């Protein structure tokens, strides 16, 4: 019987879950939210509105094995600024959170970023490699010009306001930042302000990316898969309000 939190399972050991533990795993909520501008993903301050408040029954898109209650605590697995929009994962799943934002995570995030200022090959090259923030070198990024004044960023890290600060260093100003993908999870046709449940396949894929392929317990499917995102589309835990 394992009684202490954080117990590591070593090679050769077999972990068997009791019924109560299995039920808890099956009902853990991970919400895939299309966050609008104006909501904060982290702990709200003063009159800020937490994005978790949108994760309720009226805003559900599709089906979910569980619906948040007043006591549900959802934490962001990777922040998204108040003035940014798009894909945000809010979860009770600590294993998933660590896989996405842990120090060794290899989960990439994709953004469509609208900027003002002259875009040049030299600026794009600097955005891809060569910039530093807060005295630390950034990991290489993939940045391409998508259309007009829209840049497509693919990052494997998430420093505070990273993309906005990167653009400022090369003389560009961000007017819109839209996250469309985290690992194998895409925003697709999820309406703004709505959420759906993360599927077991998506969870397994994120954990595989984040942990280098180590296996973790699976959960019941959360919601329907969606088609690829259209090109034209542009932590501290907190409690959700009772719907």
Could you provide a short overview of the structure?
This protein is an alpha+beta fold and 243 residues long. The chain contains 5 helices and 14 strands. Strands 1, 4, 5, 6, 9, 10, 11, 12, 13 and 14 form a 10-stranded mixed sheet that branches.
Spell out the key features of this protein:
alpha+beta; 5 helices
How is this structure best described in words?
The protein has 243 residues and is of the alpha+beta class. Helix content is 19%, strand content 26%. It has 5 helices and 14 strands. It has helices at 19-27, 94-101, 121-128, 162-169, 200-211, and strands spanning 30-35, 39-40, 49-50, 73-76, 85-91, 109-116, 132-133, 136-137, 142-147, 150-155, 173-182, 185-186, 195-197, 238-239. Strands 1, 4, 5, 6, 9, 10, 11, 12, 13 and 14 form a 10-stranded mixed sheet that branches. Strands 2-3 form a two-stranded parallel sheet. Helix 2 (94-101) crosses helix 5. It is globular and about 60 Å long. The protein starts with 18 loop residues before the first helix and ends with a strand.
């Amino acid at each position: 019987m394992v009684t202490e939190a954080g117990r590591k399972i070593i090679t050769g050991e077999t972990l068997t879950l009791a019924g109560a533990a299995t039920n808890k795993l099956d009902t853990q909520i991970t919400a895939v939210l299309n966050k609008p501008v104006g909501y904060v993903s982290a702990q709200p301050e003063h009159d800020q509105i937490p994005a978790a408040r949108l994760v309720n029954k009226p805003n559900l898109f599709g089906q979910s094995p569980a619906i948040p209650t007043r006591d549900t605590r959802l934490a962001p697995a990777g922040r998204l600024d108040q003035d940014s929009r798009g894909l945000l994962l809010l979860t009770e799943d600590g294993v998933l959170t660590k896989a996405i934002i842990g120090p060794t995570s290899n989960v990439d995030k994709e953004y469509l970023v609208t900027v003002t200022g002259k875009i040049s090959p030299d600026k794009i090259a600097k955005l891809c490699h060569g910039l530093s923030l807060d005295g630390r070198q950034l990991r290489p990024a993939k940045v391409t010009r998508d259309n007009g004044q829209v840049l497509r960023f693919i990052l494997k890290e998430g420093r505070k306001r990273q993309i906005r600060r990167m653009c400022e260093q090369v003389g560009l100003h961000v007017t819109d930042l839209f996250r469309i993908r985290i690992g194998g999870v895409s925003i697709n046709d999820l309406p703004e302000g709505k959420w759906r449940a993360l599927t077991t396949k998506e969870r397994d894929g994120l954990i595989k990316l984040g942990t280098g392929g180590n296996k973790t317990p699976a959960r019941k499917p959360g919601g329907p898969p969606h088609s690829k995102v259209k090109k034209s589309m542009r932590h501290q835990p907190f409690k959700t309000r009772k719907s």
